Amino acid sequence: MRGTDFGNLRAFMMIVDSGSFVRAAAALKIAPSTLSYTIQVLEGRLGTKLLQRTTRTVRLTEAGSRLARRLGPMMSEFDTLMEDLTEPREKPSGTLKLCVPRMPMRLYMEPLLNGFEAAYTDITIDLTIGDVLVDIAVSGFDAAVIPNRSIQDDLVSIRLGPELKRIVYASPRYLARFGAPSEPGDLVHHNCINFRGPHTGAIYPWEFQRGQERFEVAVSGSLIVSDSTYTLSAALSGKGIGYGIEPISKPFLDDGSLISLLEGWVAPHPGFMLCYPKNRNISAALKALLSYVRKQSRAGSRLNDDRVNGRLGSTHIVRT
């Protein structure tokens, strides 16, 4: 391995972890243009493209995915070794204030925090769970979980998981009365259940894609909600067509209570990030959490959890 290879591979994994060239460059304390050149050098060295970059997203190519899967555990092991060699005499302690929306709490943070609490018994977790708009810098939280595309430039972020599959769905009762849309444009003729994003206060766009083309459809209906579980309840009751991530709705798709629509059209959800303020002194407790999350994220253990595979046992849906 050449002398610069390790640094270039580290930069690549920083992009994978943060989901953004800009955020990775900030974490590495280099200019985004320098980071872009670093990745170009790495791709030239390997003779293959690792990342597909657009104005809105950064995605791994097939080769990039293979490299990240192999490299992640190695980097995690290296970080563990360095931390063991520089481990403080006293274990981290104190209170860690976190804010996590309900959905990523069940998908990611619940299993992560279970392991973290077992490993760091001297740290108290002060956890706020709710779909609310949080300004970490002024709210007193140490960190918060935020959708990838809603992250501000003054935050440092760690990716909690991959993009999530989204679906459009409705109950057999609704489809028997009104029929099924055959393409996204047909949704304007249906009663759609809109979702108001807790992090922006705006109506969440229904995003679709076909090949490289990505577009939005402005839907309307008689109901706007701010809780994804109630979107499911309303759809199960036949009130309209819903839109959301597959892991939450999968049990109802499996038993036939809901029908998936417009398959092959729906754009993926960008995923969630654990974020903290860029210019704030980081406590020992938060450092411990960030290190733990990075290790688990790179090891890929979160992807094997039943919650990500669609079995959200603690989600309660009311059927009428």
TrEMBL record:
Gene Ontology MF terms: DNA-binding transcription factor activity; sequence-specific DNA binding
UniProt xrefs under InterPro entries: LysR-type_TF_proteobact-type (IPR058163), LysR_HTH_N (IPR000847), LysR_subst-bd (IPR005119), WH-like_DNA-bd_sf (IPR036388), WH_DNA-bd_sf (IPR036390)
Family statement: Belongs to the LysR transcriptional regulatory family.
Role of this protein: Transcriptional regulator of the ttuABCDE tartrate utilization operon.
Keywords: DNA-binding, Transcription, Transcription regulation
An example Gene Ontology biological process: DNA-templated transcription
Domain of life of the native organism: Bacteria
Residue ranges annotated for the HTH lysR-type domain, each copy included: 4-61
Matches recorded under Pfam families: HTH_1 (PF00126), LysR_substrate (PF03466)
Gene3D superfamilies: 3.40.190.290, Winged helix-like DNA-binding domain superfamily/Winged helix DNA-binding domain (1.10.10.10)
Name of the protein: HTH-type transcriptional regulator TtuA
